[in-house]
Amino acid sequence: MWPINNGKERIHQPNKSKLLLSQQEIKAIESWVSQMWTYQFYKTARQIVSTASKTLKFKYKMIGYGLNRVVYDLNNGYILKIALSEVGLISNANEAYIYNNCNKEVKKYLCPVKEYGLGWIIMKKVDTKVSIMEYTKLIKLELKFLRYGIIPIDLRLDNVGFNENNEMVVIDYGLFTMDLISPFLRRLVYPRANDR
Ligand SMILES: Nc1ncnc2c1ncn2[C@@H]1O[C@H](COP(=O)(O)OP(=O)(O)OP(=O)(O)O)[C@@H](O)[C@H]1O
Ligand SMILES: [Mg+2]
User: Fold this and answer.
1) Over the stretch 71-116, which tens digit does the pLDDT of each residue have?
2) Is 111 left (phi over 0), alpha (psi -120 to 50) or beta?
3) Whose CA is nearest to atom 17 of ligand 1?
4) Quick check: CB of 128 below 6 Å from ligand 1?
5) H-helix or E-strand containing 189?
6) Ligand nearest to the CA of 171
7) Which SUPFAM superfamilies does this chain map to (predicted)?
8) Where are the domains of the chain?
9) Are 173 and 152 contacting, i.e. CB atoms less than 8 angstroms apart?
10) Which ligand 1 atom is at minimum distance from the Cα of 156?
11) 43 half-sphere exposure, CB direction, 13 A CA radius
């Protein structure tokens, strides 16, 4: 069980997939996550990905990886991202949190999250071929997130794609920062006020 704090209540997410992953696949992810710490300090990203894929033994095609996550195509319109590092674990949790708690005006620009658990997240698969000419769309997107209180850290062309309606959506928002006005910061600004 792992908690996601949505600002109002704590939601406990059991490490189970209702729809898309088998119990055996979840066990393989758990096994990888429990040992990945030993690799992250002395191996290159490529070596960590190769070790992860040997441990996971998935039948799915690997369609990409970054510094923190390896990505598989589930062949049903969804992709599975698995953490390769502590930042990867946090990124998965952060994407699930942001997608489920952000303002609806910006939600449509985020690649939809279908399911998530400790170390993994399932998102819609989108077209990741993005031309450099789309740069102005990216800048407009950045302003939209800022307007709704989200700081879009690491927003770049590599981290966006196009959905079925040909709209630009962010596929990697693991480092985005929402909730700048957290209860902790509120207490600093209003020391005598109760949590509002
Ligand atoms: N929703 C998606 N649909 C299709 N491909 C995707 C999707 N999400 C990720 N990918 C592919 O997997 C790659 C790595 O994913 P992602 O950027 O989320 O990993 P990361 O480790 O967080 O990256 P970074 O190094 O930028 O931190 C992407 O560049 C893309 O090619
Ligand atoms: Mg990325």
Assistant:
1) 999 999 999 999 999 999 999 999 999 999 999 999 999 999 999 9
2) beta
3) 172
4) yes
5) helix 183-189
6) 1
7) Protein kinase-like (PK-like)
8) 2-183
9) yes
10) 26
11) 17
